[in-house]
């Protein structure tokens, strides 16, 4: 007699993230608090505009190659989880366990807290002109923003994608406005051009110590961070072999 026992299929995630959603996840997380905060720190650490530009170029190249590597990993191992899944499949459960603990208790919470604090400072600044906002108010708003983002992602994937796309468009417009305003200011003032585009003195005052260059490079990588986030939701992508390559290369 044939076995009529119903087969229990494993729990699977709904594949609701398309190309636009994938691009929004990668671009929206890369264009975050880092791009608004890191430039001043990079320039402050290296001490010259020329060295600062080299740090930004080098950081961008490293981020590009890392994103391409993750694209290949995501197509070879089409499972959600990012670094944890790759370490688990390649090195085994023991290293993966420590990687998961490190991500959950140190890396991810600190990263989320830093981003939330940055957002809170910018939001609270207009309410306290001429002085820094109180730390208690900043921390409360940061905690509230983390709660809102978490609840949005928990409730509905499509809602989270729509919010991601809206904020991506807003951030792109903000950066475009800043860039155009800077170019207009440069064109209007010849003094600015002479002071900031002096090729002969572009590297004057550069700090060459390993510590300062390392910190500047870290700030550059922090600003480019976010290229790996799509690999955390690989199982929610429609045709991940197409979406991963299209989103991360874009």
Provide a concise account of the structure shown.
By secondary structure, this protein is mainly alpha-helical. It is 72% helix and 0% strand.
Write the layout of secondary structure elements.
Elements: H1 19-30, H2 33-46, H3 49-76, H4 83-91, H5 93-124, H6 135-155, H7 157-188, H8 190-196, H9 210-224, H10 240-249
Question: How would you sum up this structure, described in words?
Answer:
The chain is an all-alpha fold and 250 residues long. Helix content is 72%, strand content 0%. It has 10 helices and no strands. The radius of gyration is 22 Å and the shape is globular. The N terminus is likely disordered.
Structural class: mainly alpha
Silhouette: globular
Amino- and carboxy-terminal Cα gap: 55 Å
Total strands: the figure is 0
Order of helices and strands: HHHHHHHHHH
Helix content: over 70%
The main pleated sheet reads as:
none
Mean pLDDT, to the nearest integer, reads: 80
Task: Return residue spans where pLDDT drops below 50 for at least 5 consecutive residues.
Answer: 1-8
Q: Please work out how many helical segments DSSP would assign.
A: 10
Strand percent estimate: under 5%
Q: How many whole angstroms does the radius of gyration measure?
A: 22 Å
Entry keywords:
10 helices, disordered N terminus, single chain, 250 residues, mainly alpha, 72% helix
